[in-house]
Amino acid sequence: MDILTLYRNIRLIEKSFSLQIEEVADIIENVNKIPRWKIFDKFLINENHLQTLSSKSGISLSIDHNIYSKNVIKWLIEEELKWQINDELPLKFTTKIITEYRLTRLLPYADKLKEANTELLYFPRNFILFNLAYPDIFKPWQFRHLNREYWKSASIGKYRLAGALRWLIEKKKGIARDLVPNIKGFRSFLTTRELEYYHLSKAFRIHFNNQKEWIDYTYPENLTKTIREDATKLIEILKLMIDNITHVNYAKQVKLLKYITLFLLQLVALMKFII
Description:
The protein is mainly α. The protein has 4 domains: 3-62, no CATH class; 66-135, no CATH class; 151-219, no CATH class; 223-275. 62% of the residues lie in helices and 0% in strands. It has helices spanning 3-13, 21-30, 36-43, 47-57, 65-80, 89-92, 95-100, 106-116, 125-133, 149-152, 157-172, 180-183, 192-197, 211-218, 223-244, 250-273. The model has no long low-confidence stretch (mean pLDDT 84).
């Protein structure tokens, strides 16, 4: 149905309908592209008006939370704030900004994603929302308020810290892995300022006494051997979990499945160390 026919049908059903044809077309086009409040302010309508328009036209104007969240975050970053996508952005993109621009309806959706995906459990909501719009650009620890439990895990906390250090050294500083053994003892190899900037200065102390211990764990003399030993330990724990899953109640089975998922993800991450 073209927009003109749609508009005529609405007017036949509801003679008091006050929106113009161009306005109806604008609303339909942008309902999942810009914040809801922008539509309300622009056309002096509210949610009830949209529901009426939807019921009269037969076109759904409800929010698709996944599409809406992606588009609205892009609108905020690119059109409203006009921010560049660089390492300063995670420091600025906070829940306070989300609230200031009347986008709080996005936060419960981020919470639902966390509940549905164990991997997101400890991530900040602002990171989850940003990552929907711009996947894999930033790491969760670059944003404020990453839950410390992400690092504390006795089974995989160390591996996560090792992965974070490798990311910082190899991706952000651009140091090739094969050069690390020759320069990891230099003061400039890893500075306090760099760790503070990427929110890692306190995290590594959860499992390591000092930077040297963290660096040596991440870049051991025989990396392949160390990773294979760690992977073997993880596999043994996984076997125990799988053996026990049929002997516990449903609630504990769900919990065990979440842990199994985390361990499998960590095994994949470990394998990447030696690829």
